[in-house]
Amino acid sequence: MRVLLVLAEPPLPEGGAPGRCSVALIRGLRAHGVGVDVLAARQPFSVSGDPPPDLGAEMVTVDASSATPASFGHRLRRPHDDLARSPFQDRVRARAREVDVVHVEAVEAAWCAVGLPVPSVVHLHYRARLDRSVGPPWRPAFREVLRFARRERVVIRSQRWLIASSPRVAETLRHDSPRAEVTLAPLGLDPVGYGPAPLDGPPTVGIIGTASWPPTASAMRRLVQRVWPLVRREVADARLVIAGRGTQSLAWAGPGIELRGPVTSSAAFLRELSVLTYPLDRGSGVKVKVLEALATGLPVVTTACGAEGLDAPGGLVVLPDDDHALAAATVEVLVDVAARRERGAAARRAFDQRYTPVRSTAALPGLYERMAR
C-alpha cells in the first residue's frame, strides 16, 4: 500500500500545530508498514525550517503570485482554493499517479483532492461554524466565516471518505455527508520532542496560542479578566504566562501577568508551567496545546470544548463552563505539589496509551485498504 500525504504546511517538530501533528502521522503510518510519500506546501505564513530528513517530504513553495486568477463565480463555487490553483496542485496530480490512495491532511488543502485518478480522503481537524459565530452581516468576520463554512460543506459532500479528529467532528461530518464513510482518528504527537515537565518550580499558570484566532483570544481574555483574579486571591505568589504569536501586543496587565509573545518551542514553554489553564467556551476538534501538555506530563484544567476528543483521566480536569470552578481547580494544582505530580503522571500515561504515532494512526491502514479496493 502506497499513500500520498498532502499537507498545507511543512511537517516540522516546532512548526504550526498541523505541522507538529503531521510528523507523528507520517512516522506512525510508516511504523504500521504503510509506504508514505509526503508532499507539503510552503506558504507565506509557514514556519521557516526544513522537515526532518527521515520524513522525505517534498516541499513546494506557494505564494500569492503563483495562483491563477479566479473569477467571482469561481470563488463562489470553490472558496479558498488557492492551493488548487497553484503549481502545488500540478505536483499533487503528478504524484497521485504513483500511489494507491491520496490522504489530504486538513481542509486547507482539500480542494487538491478533487478530480484525482485514485481514491482520496480528507482529514478535518475542526469545523468552522462550531469554532466561530457568524456575527452581524456588516462585519468582515461574517463573510469570512461563511466562506470557510462553505468550503468545508462543498468539499465534504464531494468526498466518499473522510477522517475526523474527534467524535464531535465525526458526528457533524456524518450529518452533512450521510453517504460518506467517516473514520475517527485522533491527532498524535511524536514523544521524542516532549520531555517531562519538572512541576517543581514556583506556582505558574500558562496558556499558549495565536492571539488573532478568535476562540483562543476569547479563552485568553477570559483567563486574564475573570479566572486569574480568583486564582491570585488564593495564591498570592502565582504567575500567569501568556505565550504565542501576537500575545506580546495584548493590552493586558495585572499582578503576576507576563505576556511572553512568540516562543521557539511550545514544549519548552509548557515545561515551565505548573498547570495549563484553558477556559475555552467555543471550539471544535482536538486542541493541540492540550495534547502537548499531556505529552509533557503537565496537568490541564479546561472545559469540555478544550478537552474535546481527548481522554486522559486524572491528568485532564474537565469542568463545567464556570469561572469559579476553573479557578478552584487551578488553585488545587498550584498548592498541592503531590496532587500536581500525580496528575502530571496520569497525563503522560494517557498520552503514551492513546496519542503516540503508532496509537493515533491505528485506524488508518484499514481505511486505506478499503479505499484501494
List key phrases describing it:
seven-stranded parallel beta sheet, 13 helices
Would you write up a description of this structure?
With 373 residues, this protein is an alpha/beta fold. Helices cover 38% and strands 17% of the residues. The protein contains 13 helices and 13 strands. It has helices spanning 17-31, 72-77, 87-96, 128-131, 140-158, 167-176, 214-234, 266-270, 288-295, 323-335, 337-354, 357-360, 364-372; strands at 2-7, 35-42, 57-61, 101-105, 120-124, 161-164, 181-184, 204-208, 239-243, 257-261, 275-278, 300-303, 316-319. Strands 3-2-1-4-5-6-7 form a 7-stranded parallel sheet, sandwiched between helices. Helix 10 (323-335) packs across helix 11. The protein is globular. It starts with a strand and ends with a helix. The mean pLDDT is 91.
How would you summarize what this structure contains?
It contains 13 helices and 13 strands.
Helix and strand layout, with pairings?
Blueprint: E1 2-7, H1 17-31, E2 35-42, E3 57-61, H2 72-77, H3 87-96, E4 101-105, E5 120-124, H4 128-131, H5 140-158, E6 161-164, H6 167-176, E7 181-184, E8 204-208, H7 214-234, E9 239-243, E10 257-261, H8 266-270, E11 275-278, H9 288-295, E12 300-303, E13 316-319, H10 323-335, H11 337-354, H12 357-360, H13 364-372
Parallel strand pairs: 1-2, 1-4, 2-3, 4-5, 5-6, 6-7, 8-9, 8-11, 9-10, 11-12, 12-13
Helix pairs in contact: 7-10, 9-11, 10-11
